[in-house]
Design brief:
665 residues; alpha+beta; 9-stranded mixed beta sheet; 35 strands; 29% helix; globular
């Protein structure tokens, strides 16, 4: 049987999982991330799979999710990059859209542009909004630019979404050996500022992504793993390393997207799912409707203020719509200026990690608090591969209060409330009620906090999938090959030449099909979307299109139905205009399946006190393999890569596929 191998690199842990679809055989490994060279951590995990009998010669695919691109943007560790734009527009990265994300902050900070002012160049040439040439590009002017010290170039010319000829002429005039990103290829959409930031970001990380993916492929081959490598996308789906290296901006949120896919797959038939993922560095929540995570057509990277929309760099790339906060197991706890205990957003990460890891950490973290409260077994953490130091955790938390346990309880309450607030606000923005959703909890720390967070949100059902601690890596394996293209073609619905738009959609579809053919996808599904708005409005509503030729009346009806669902009303008689058109092509998803699990002995392997509602309660500890069909809390259910905390009054059912269903009272 062939093995499929998934790899997810997080800020604290690297997760590796191998699945044999025919037999449902499965091997998991969770190892500490190696920040200086993440590939070393991957190799350590891969070697762990080999030690457990995974036959690399029979591997059919390796699917990889990574935070490399996000981290490079946040930490500003990209390559020296230049920007080439039209005369008079070199200051646009500083001007932005002139919006203020906080009207009352007189010392407002905005993200620094990825390209400094002395690396921005202007060239003659201009297109009109409809793509008509007003003045040609001068190749000689491009050749005279001083690009010394520059490793990548972003080209963003006005109205290039309507025609990429001018940008291609600039690229043709640039010297050999420089990586070039054209906005007309990366993000051919209106609004020049986000199009420019997207092109700059893609160029900024392109050489890093290419070298990293080449090194990853070589490292896997050196371990005897020569199976094709695929990369997880930010909006569900996988692509080839070649496409990922050309459009690295599309893998910004690949790990969280894979986790959301796994959450949706964990509860087939469930219409409303809340994906809840806590790792060592961040917590992420995503609302899933009708079996699909919600997708946003744009994203903000490297925010100056994590919770302030508009404080980051706008990216015209589709991503799974999730909320992410700096509240993970490694989040550092301290007192704020008012003396209140808070956790995060900075994290101890993998090096040195929480104090209880014994790797040199000195500041108390959420994991230290969970350990001191009895929610983690110090002897069974990471399948016993790492013993946790309770005394060190107690000493660290003693720096926050005279009573370390009280400090740990305060840290726990603070971090859970942060997660609840962010998840609830995200729901309100979309007109959703979290209490109407079932939660799927995963990540190393997700099951530890799931019951507490769910109870505060009013959620009554929590599912823990098989291998919850490495669910994002497992979600990589269930992803289908996919590609998506968008292009702006604005105009009033009454005046648009729909025949021309049909040809545009077909061209986008053909491009996606060509890229999927390289990924080995034969049978495909095609989705077509438009973004429409009432004339005069500044934002658009995504609308799914019918198959076949476009029809004007059908387009308006679909728009008004989508508009009414969002806003509760329409504006009859107002003209409608189109802004952009989008095509997504998806290949068949692999059949991974679930193992069939039988109940165990039902006997706990130990009993120890844990804190619930401020009181110590004797709590049985079960290995997951020993679970009975049903049990009542309190309990700890210990797995190789995660621990489920079951509060008093809750009930856990072992389902046939090995997942656990937690029902809160």
């Amino acid at each position: 049987m062939a093995w499929r191998i998934g790899v997810d690199i997080g800020g604290t842990f690297t997760d590796v999982v191998a699945v044999e679809p025919g037999s449902h055989g499965r091997v998991d490994r969770k190892v500490l991330t190696t920040p200086a060279d993440p590939i070393q951590g991957v190799v350590a995990g891969i070697r762990g799979l080999a030690a457990e009998g995974v036959d690399f010669g029979a591997a059919e695919a390796v699917v990889h999710a990574t935070t490399l691109i996000t981290n490079a943007l946040i930490e500003r560790k990209g390559v020296p990059t230049a920007l080439i734009t039209n005369a008079g527009f070199a200051d646009l990265p500083d001007i932005g859209d002139e919006g203020r994300y906080d009207l009352y902050d007189l010392a407002l900070r905005k993200p620094e542009p990825l390209v400094p002012r002395d690396h921005r160049f202007e060239v003659p040439g201009r297109l009109a909004a409809d793509g008509t040439e007003l003045a040609p590009v001068d190749p000689e002017a491009v050749k005279q630019l001083d690009l010394s010290g520059v490793e990548a170039v972003a080209v963003c010319l006005l109205h290039a979404y309507a025609g990429g000829g001018h940008e291609q002429a600039v690229r043709d005039a640039l010297p050999e050996g420089v990586d070039v990103s054209l906005s007309s290829e990366v993000a051919p959409e209106i609004r020049e500022y986000p199009r420019m930031t997207t092109a700059m970001a893609n160029a900024y990380v392109l050489p890093i992504a290419r070298r990293y993916l080449e090194r990853m492929r070589d490292a896997l081959a050196a371990e005897g793993l020569a199976a094709p490598l695929y990369i997880a996308l930010s909006h569900e789906g996988i692509t080839t390393p070649e496409d990922a290296a050309h459009f690295p901006i599309r893998i910004l949120e690949s790990g969280p997207a894979a986790g959301a896919t796994e959450a949706a797959r964990s509860m087939p038939g469930e219409e409303r799912i809340l994906s809840f993922d806590i790792g060592g560095t961040t917590a992420k929540a995503c609302y899933i409707m009708g079996g699909r995570p919600l997708i946003e057509p744009r994203f903000e990277a490297a925010r100056v203020h994590r919770h302030r929309a508009g404080s980051g760099l706008p990216m015209l790339v589709p991503v799974v719509d999730l909320i992410e906060i700096g509240a993970g197991g490694g989040s550092i706890a301290r007192r704020d200026p008012l003396g209140l205990i808070q956790a995060g957003p900075d994290s101890a990460g993998a090096d040195p990690g929480p104090v209880c890891y014994g790797r040199g950490g000195t500041e108390p973290t959420v994991t230290d608090a969970d350990l001191l409260l009895g929610y983690l077994d110090p002897e069974a953490f990471a399948a016993g591969a790492m013993r946790l130091d309770v005394d060190a955790a107690r000493a660290a938390l003693g720096s926050l209060a005279d009573d370390p346990v009280e400090a740990a309880w305060a840290v726990r309450q603070a971090v859970d409330e942060d997660m609840v607030e962010a998840t609830r606000i995200h729901a309100v923005e979309k007109g959703l009620d979290p209490a109407e959703f079932a939660m799927v909890a995963f990540g190393g720390a997700g099951p530890v906090h799931a019951a507490s967070v769910a109870a505060r949100l009013g959620v009554r059902t929590v599912l823990l999938p098989v291998g919850a601690g490495v669910a994002s890596a497992h979600g990589c394996l269930a992803q289908a090959p996919a590609f998506e293209r968008t292009r702006s073609w604005p105009g009033g619905l009454a005046e648009l030449d729909l025949g021309e738009v049909d040809r545009l959609l077909q061209a986008l579809e053909d491009d996606c099909l060509d890229r999927l053919s390289h990924a080995g996808a034969a049978e495909v599904a095609v989705e077509r979307w438009a973004t429409l708005r009432y004339a005069g409005q500044g934002t658009e509503v995504p609308v799914a299109l019918a198959e076949g030729k476009l029809d004007r009346d059908d387009l308006r009806a679909r728009f008004e139905a989508a508009y009414a669902e969002l806003f509760g009303r329409t504006a009859p008689g107002n003209p409608v205009e189109a802004v952009s058109w989008r095509v997504r092509v998806t290949g068949p998803a692999p059949e991974i399946g679930w193992p069939q699990v039988q109940p165990g002995s039902g006997e706990p392997y130990a009993e120890a006190p844990a804190v619930f509602d401020g009181d110590w309660v004797d709590t049985p500890r079960y290995r997951r393999a020993d679970l009975p069909p049903h049990l009542n809390g309190p309990a700890l259910i210990v797995d190789a890569a995660s621990t489920l905390v079951v509060p008093p009054g809750a009930r856990v059912d072992l389902l046939g596929d090995g997942s656990l269903r937690l029902m809160l009272s």
